[in-house]
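WARN no homologs supplied; continuing
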Amino acid sequence: MLASAPPVAFAYRRLLVQVQLQVPWTELRVLALLQSEPQVRSVHILGYRHSSAPRQPKSAVCFVVRWAAHSSAALELALGALDVRYSVLENSLVEDMASLVVVETILKVNGMMCVANCGNTVVRAIQSVASVLEVHLEFDDAQVVVQSHNTVTAHALIARIQAIGFEADLVSVTPVPWHRQFHMQRTGGCHVTMDVALQLETVLSHVEGVEKVAVVPHLATVDVFGFFDAHEVVLMAATVALHLTDRESSVDPLQAEGGSTPVHHECSFACSSGCIKYQTTMAHTAALAVGWAVPGCGMAFGYECNCGDSCKCAGCPTHNPGTTIDPVTALL
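OK structure emitted
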């Protein structure tokens, strides 16, 4: 029997990049360029808020980039090719043990002569490994694609294949993004139009960790993929007058008792489902570094204010006591 191994971590590099915009490189063009890089998992505009007014040209914009590779050299090379000024305000390697549930492992299997005998024997051997969820044989490429819980290591899979007389090599191990489906309802009971659906898709794409959004207006559903905090998704949807309910749990994430992060914990991106307190603090720190103000301070999420002594936020118990404000309103 194989010895148990520690869970595989979801490791990614998080970059906070400030870009000085100039013709022809607009905010959206730089965003599209960053998203096109093969190792980029997601790109988000820091402090993005929807507005019905035409977006005014900006001289600078700050992007949050989640990069799959351990090195960010390729990303900085792409930015350098634009011939624009940019600054990397943060470049950190994050190993998130709590967020990752399922991984996809691709193995190259040598020595398979046929599908019916060799191929099926390899598939059955892998299926016998505890916590393996799905196995797909790609015989023409001599590969097997395995989805499993992150407690299953590539070493364990290779050892099982070797035990039945075949040799195997690791091709890749990648995390499988979460899939959360929400039911959406427009404030006031109005119909969700296609324009509103597009607005929702845009604002949710800038929630950190969201990799894909699919809005289906006639079914009143929103499918969100990636590694994100469901509370942030709900709060951002409220900025376009939409109320989201998590269909998986049939509970409004904002009303869930205790929230997604325990009160007493070490604030880092490895916190379960992401730590709003830490992320909000980092957003403010980065914004202040470039002279910006980000709407909604930490107190909007039930934590202490992190705006500093010059805070004027309504409802701030530290700097502006005696006023109250709804958490969602604080983001508007």
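Residues 250-264, 269-274, 324-332 have pLDDT under 50 and may be disordered.
OK
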